[in-house]
Amino acid sequence: MAMPRPRCHGAAFQRLIGMTEAVNASKPTLAPLYSVLTDEQKKMADQLMPGPLGHGSHVTI
């Protein structure tokens, strides 16, 4: 049985909040690491890190 729309949207919103909190929590650790990578390593990291839509993309930290 499908979840009612308002409840479904609420659950999706809570997941987004959780993902945002996880990204914000990792930022202080990842920013210094990313800054010392070589250009080649940054290119590889950019491909591995999910972007806003789940695709590998450059994300400024």
Describe the structure.
With 61 residues, the protein is mainly alpha-helical. It is built from two helices and no strands. Mean pLDDT is 79; it is low at 53-58.
Q: Total helix count?
A: 2
| Proportion of residues in β-strands | under 5%
Given helix and strand content, the structural type is mainly alpha
Q: Sketch the topology as an H/E string, one letter per element.
A: HH
**Unreliable segments (pLDDT under 50, ≥5 consecutive)?**
53-58
How does the major sheet shape up?
Answer: none
Helix content class: 55-70%
Radius of gyration, taken over Cα atoms and rounded to an integer in Å: 16 Å
First-to-last CA distance: 41 Å
Number of E strands: 0
- Overall form: elongated
Could you report the average pLDDT, rounded to the nearest whole number? 79
